[in-house]
Amino acid sequence: MLTLFYSPFHTFIHKVLVTAHECGLWDDIDFVATFPFKNLEGEDQGDAYDISALNSLDKVPTLATETGQVIYGSQAICEFLDANSKARRMYPPPGPGRWEALTRLATGDTIFETTVQMVAEQWQPKEQWNMRVFQSLWPKYIAALDRLDREARGWRDFDVGHAALLHAISYLGFRAEFYEAKDPIHPNFNWRENRPALSDWFDEAITRPSVLAHYNRDFSGDTSAARCQEAVRRVLALQEAHRA
Q1: pTM confidence score
Q2: For labeling, which of 13, 89, 143, 195 is most exposed (least CB within 10 Å)?
């Protein structure tokens, strides 16, 4: 059984979950709800959502194998899942198609990671916002989305790069749920506007079983910190047993 520590916010699409499902590994994973931002100063770390014993960066997603080996970073996890696929492969074979998929993967991951940066900036009091964050990121989003709209007309398959784009676009589209304040540059941004091909592709892609398995569906497991810590201890025990 694989163990996946991740934040179970299903109002955006998780590319690791999509990849796990596409690769036929969904039923082989123990999904552990983890909330790194709840590790508040002064909180009893025995009861916190702290996975730093496994991942010194204390970030999600983090995957542990049946031997206790820990793999973190969504790109590394997706590649592991693909290498152990029981169904279809999400990484194309070497050649132009693979490089296109990896470029889409890089585009999606960059949009997602920088959107997180923008969201985190708005967790600060408004007078402390660094406007250069917004001013530098929005032109990149616009240019990338416009290019993706042009490319989407030729997409016929579904690979890890497409999963990453679903992740990024869905998060960019609902980012306002993470803060009360309106974005200072694009308060009512609609990524679909003037991007019909990308919009049509997205609407078709989200009907895939790998997306429907979690997107806009509540997490059905135990979300307690105790459950998270039990899973951490189990992985540490696997590591110890494997070393013995």
Answers
A1: 0.94
A2: 143
